[in-house]
Amino acid sequence: MRNFDLAPLYRATVGFDQIADLMDRVLTDTATTPSYPPYNIEKTAEDAWRISIAVAGFSEDDLSVEVRENALFVSARKAAEDENKTYLHRGIANRAFERRFALADHVHVTGASHVNGMLHIDLVREVPEALKPRRIAIAAGDTLEGKAVETNSVN
Question: In this structure, which of 10, 60, 139, 141 has its CB flanked by the most CB atoms within 10 Å?
């Protein structure tokens, strides 16, 4: 696997740390990336997504969904098991886990549901009005003196 040095990017840019960190995370060895539990990321609309995680065997009380520092953290801790059980075969993995998903700016969690062993987390991008593109009306001649220019939202 190739190793890329991102130090020149850090030295030559200001305020783009998130992009460099994202590239750094993507370029690291993926062999150490955990595969449990399996999950899907589905695009449900232009600015909406759903993350579905297979959490069979976990109840709502065992699961935790948190958003902090532009990241979504999903974790599960199983309550202590009954030690009186004797298993002949144990193939169901009810081990604890933590999954982290990086969220882009203005992406918010709108809800989470636990149905039939699947944890569904709905996300939506809500760009503030101040950051949306605006169309500026062009006035003819010297009509800008003492008058406010009207703006219309593009969206």
Answer: 10
